[in-house]
Amino acid sequence: MAFGFSAFCGCVGALIWVLWVLPVAASVGDAHPEPLGSAVSVDLDAGERVGIWGSGISAMLGTMQCTATGPDAAEAPQYGGPSLSWDDTLWWMTPKPGFEQSTQFTSAEAGTYTVICDDSLDTYDGEFLVAGDAFGRGSIGLGRTGGSDFAVGTLLAFGAVFCPLIVVLLPAVILIRRLVTRARVSRTQGGDPGAAAVR
Q1: Could you state, in order of their start, the residue ranges of all structural domains in the chain?
Q2: Of 68, 135, 51, 136, whose CA–CA distance to 108 is shortest?
Q3: Three-state DSSP class for 161?
């Protein structure tokens, strides 16, 4: 049972890393940062979701504000991240140190989207880039009745570090317990042959 759960966690963890962690990290690594006040143009397919990442004092203080304008000149709505996200568990996988995702937006139609970020106080400097989205959208109900909703981004960020730990630690703990149990049985049998015979 325990080894089966460990194998299940291994499969889930591998999928999270292959389908989410590595692609997001690669997209951040390939993106070119621009200083605040600049414009970045990206070509998106309809329904494609991307993240706006920022670094510097403005992003750290939360004064960085961005707009994303689509091919129809309409501004795309942006959304923030969940309480537990990439920056809490996988910051060490971000290829560009200091960059954290600020918001996300989804393209309503295919075309070129222009992203402009600046400091709302017009005081602090920083950089931004447009890359893969690490926040995710929607939630999944967990628990006995499914009444506890957890954001998809939170589950991915948690699973990316929890599943590999389970794969490594659970078999190790089981093996140690078995070795300890065998050692105790051996000491008992060696110290009291009569008791061992009764057993």
Answers
A1: 31-141
A2: 68
A3: helix
Q: Which residue type does 137 have?
A: R
85, two tokens:
């996200």
- Mean pLDDT by groups of 10 residues along the chain of 199 residues: 84 96 97 97 97 97 97 95 93 95 97 98 97 91 70 94 91 85 81 51
In degrees rounded to 5, what are phi and psi of residue 40? -120, 130
Q: In what order do the strands lie in the sheet with 111-119?
A: 39-44, 111-119, 64-69
List alpha helices for 62-108, DSSP H.
86-89
Task: Please tell me the CATH code under which domain 31-141 is placed.
Answer: 2.60.120
100: left (phi over 0), alpha (psi -120 to 50) or beta: beta
